[in-house]
Design a protein that fits this description.
This protein is mainly α. The chain contains 16 helices and no strands. It has helices at residues 8-20, 24-37, 42-55, 59-72, 77-90, 94-110, 115-127, 131-142, 150-166, 171-184, 191-203, 206-219, 224-236, 240-253, 258-271, 274-284. The longest helix is centred in the middle third of the chain and has 17 residues, at 94-110. 39% of the residues are buried. The model has no long low-confidence stretch (mean pLDDT 91).
């Protein structure tokens, strides 16, 4: 005899189990049953919204559930945070960005130390090119673990390091941020690449940089920027043959990537094959090897 759960929490837990096992049809059915059992539970409503956003990639339905959760409890931080994520996924225009900013400010009024929101707001401000306020919020996010996963923390470290390097010219601070990111999550895309390039520039130590880039490509063979940086470093070391092989592999992944095309054009130009180099530069949207 199959006994159906009569408690919305039990049903929601069952739904989550189905979701984790990638049985999305059963998960959706169970989530909707949980809502039917108690349509006034903001936590469950938020979880259903997250399911539609993350697993079903249905941002419209996700937004509906998040707004319903907020209607039940206007100060329910996970629902507010979930709506921000959903709106950013939808990628609409100025009105949506204004609402995102308002939601961030509302969450941080309720909980000024919510690490995940601080990190998301910092990233949002970066996208709006408000770099100095972004640095402040990212720094605050790094000081709070509330609501954050290790992946969230590492992504915050990488963005923080990027801003320190590009805006403040604080290369030592950026290197420390990248080192911490690599230590926490060695396989995170971009972590070893960033550390390798900055280490090369700051200390002129090619051995460490080559090792990090090789490991990064082995871990994530789809990271095209790694191939380009690795090839540039090899060219600097005089190993044109291996550099060319790396760029060919990168072109197999993305034959129109301007970074790869420009790097490969430089090799061809150095060989004296100006015609082939110009063709690649034209494809990359550049006019000559000195353009950037």
């Amino acid at each position: 005899l199959k006994i159906e759960p009569r408690n919305e929490v039990t049903m929601a837990n069952r739904a989550r189990a189905f979701e984790l096992s990638n049985d999305l049809i059963e998960a959706q059915s169970a989530y909707e049953a949980a809502v039917a059992l108690n349509p006034l539970n903001p936590k469950i409503m938020t979880n259903v919204g997250a399911f539609f956003s993350e697993s079903m990639k249905d941002q419209g339905r996700a937004e509906t559930y998040m707004r319903q959760a907020m209607a039940i409890d206007p100060n329910h931080v996970p629902a507010l945070n979930g709506l921000v994520t959903t709106l950013s996924q939808k990628g609409a225009g100025r009105t949506t960005r204004d609402e995102e900013q308002s939601l961030f400010e509302r969450i941080l009024t309720i909980d000024p130390h919510h690490g995940k929101t601080l990190a998301q707001y910092g990233s949002f401000l970066c996208e709006q090119k408000s770099f100095m306020p972004a640095l402040e919020y990212l720094q605050r996010a790094l000081q709070s673990s509330k609501g954050k996963t290790v992946v969230d923390h590492v992504k915050t470290l990488l963005l923080f390091g990027d801003l320190l390097q590009n805006m403040n010219k604080d290369f030592e601070g950026a290197e420390k941020a990248y080192e911490e990111a690599v230590k926490l999550l060695p396989n995170q895309r971009g972590a070893k690449r960033r550390l390798a390039v900055l280490s090369w520039v700051r200390h002129d130590t090619t051995e460490k940089a080559l090792k990090l880039l090789k490991e990064a490509i082995e871990t994530d063979p789809q990271d095209i920027e790694c191939y380009v940086q690795y090839a540039m470093l090899l060219l600097d070391e005089g190993d044109e043959e291996q550099a060319e092989q790396l760029l060919i592999r990168a072109l197999e992944l993305d034959s129109r990537n301007p970074l790869v095309l420009k790097a490969y054009a430089e090799i061809l130009a150095d060989r004296g094959d100006e015609e082939a180099a110009l063709r690649l530069l034209h494809d990359a949207g550049l006019s000559n090897p000195t353009d950037s």
